[in-house]
Please model this.
Amino acid sequence: MSVTRLCHIKDHLQSEKKLETMTHVHRSPLTTHVLNTAQGAPAANLALSLYRLEGPPNLQEWRPLTCGVTNSDGRCPDLVSPETFTAGMYKMRFETGDYWNKLGETSFYPYVEIAFNIIDPSQKYHIPLLLSQFSYSTYRGS
Model:
């Protein structure tokens, strides 16, 4: 099952909870912005997922936390709530192959995974992704 389909199912299941919490808007302490550098435009409709490394040291596994799709500006707001954002190792997985296929292009990278450490969860973290069919780069933004 595709990541995009899983995100739609998750959104459907959480719709009632979203209605209950609409008055309690939060800003995600973790944001991303994906730019299609080949076209000089935001990478809209790119599926992504967020994971946290959990478990005892010899049995650690990546646990899925959330998924989403970038908006028309290449951003995916509300990835994680401040309450669930804790210190630890995380990774974002961007479904770049599917993204390029939808644009009628091929890509060398079927996906991009960016692993990063969160030391102080009270800070804001921004993970930009600059993307073309044959290269990508990232950095810790502000």
Q: What stands out?
A: The beta strands are 30-36, 41-42, 47-54, 61-69, 88-94, 112-118, 125-132, 135-138. The longest helix spans residues 3-21. The first strand starts at residue 30 and ends at 36.
